[in-house]
Amino acid sequence: MKKQAISSSDKAFNALGDPTRRAIFEKLRVRPLAVVEIADGLPVSRPAVSQHLKVLKDARLIRVHREGTRNLCQIDTRGVLAMRNYLDNFWDIALAAFKQAAEKHKKHE
Amino acid sequence: MKKQAISSSDKAFNALGDPTRRAIFEKLRVRPLAVVEIADGLPVSRPAVSQHLKVLKDARLIRVHREGTRNLCQIDTRGVLAMRNYLDNFWDIALAAFKQAAEKHKKHE
DNA sequence: ACTTACCGTAAGTACAAACTTACCATTAAA
DNA sequence: TTTAATGGTAAGTTTGTACTTACGGTAAGT
C-alpha cells in the first residue's frame, strides 16, 4: 500500500467515522468538558478517551487547553468548516452530474 | 459488544473515513462509472473495489443499477444530504454554545 | 455453443486501530 | 509535604478491516 496525501477534511472524516469519537464530539457540542467528564458515561476507559481526543485534536475537530489540573476540550470550528466546505463543493459538482443522470434513470426504479 | 445505533450519517462518515472510498466517491462526482472503470487507476484490485462499493451503497452514498453486464454507479444524494444536515445542525448548536461561553466570559471580567 | 467482458462473493491473510492495565507527571489542596 | 485529582503515554492484546486470490455467475458478442 502506498501512502497518500491527507487533507484536513480527510482526517476529519476519518475521525468522525469512529462511533466513540462521534459520541465524544457530540458531548462537546453542548459545552466544553474536561477529559474525565468526557470519559464519564462512555463504555471505554479514560486512557482510551485520551487517545481518541488525540485523533480529534489532530483532525482540528477539538481544541484543548490546560486549566489547573484539568484539560478542557471544546469544539474546533476549523475541522467542522473543512468538512462543510468539502461537502458543499462536492454538492455543486455532483448536482450537475446527478441531474444529467436523472434523465436516463427516470424509467428505472 | 459496543454495538450501538447507527444513523445514516454515521455510516456515511465511516464510509468516507477510508481514503480508497474517498477516491472512489470523488471519481463518481464527475459522472457515473462502471465498476471496472472505477477500479482502473486505483492501487487496489477490482474485488476490493466491489467491497468498498458495498459499504458506500449501504451508507446511501452511491446508487448502483445494472446496465447490460455493467454495474453503473453514481452518487446518491441522500447520504451527502445526511452529512450536510448533521454538520449544519451541529454548527448551529456549537455556535450557540460559543455565544453562551462568550457571555459568561464577559460577565467575569 | 463458445468466448469474452463484467462483477459479486468466499476464504484466508496482514496490517491498522481500538482497547486494556500499569505507570508516571503535574497541579491543587490538606 | 503529603494526599488526591487529573490525565498523558507505554506496552501488549484483541478486534476490525482492507486486501489478496480463486471461483462462479450472468450478459453480450462471435
pLDDT averaged over residues of chain A? 86
Please count the beta strands of chain A (DSSP E, at least 2 residues each): 3
Succession of helices and strands of chain A = HHEHHEEH
Domain module count of chain A: 1
- Note the quaternary state here: homodimer
- What is the CATH domain class of chain A? Mainly Alpha
CATH topology of chain A: Arc Repressor Mutant, subunit A
Strand order of the largest sheet of chain A: 1-3-2
* Major interchain interface with per-chain residue totals: A-B, 39 and 35 residues
Question: Based on the structure given, which CATH architecture of chain A is correct?
Answer: Orthogonal Bundle
The CATH superfamily of chain A is known as: Winged helix-like DNA-binding domain superfamily/Winged helix DNA-binding domain
> What's the overall geometry of chain A?
elongated
Low-pLDDT segments, ≥5 res of chain A = 1-5
Biggest beta sheet attributes of chain A: 3 strands, antiparallel
Q: DSSP helix count of chain A?
A: 5
Q: Compute the separation of the termini of chain A in Å.
A: 38 Å
Considering DSSP H and I runs of 4 or more, what fraction of the residues of chain A is helical?
Answer: 55-70%
Question: Class by helix and strand content of chain A?
Answer: alpha+beta
Beta-strand level of the residues of chain A, as a percent range? 5-15%
Keywords (chains A, B): DNA-binding, Transcription, Transcription regulation
GO molecular function, one term (chains A, B): DNA binding
Domain HTH arsR-type (chains A, B): 1-102
Pfam family, one (chains A, B): HTH_20
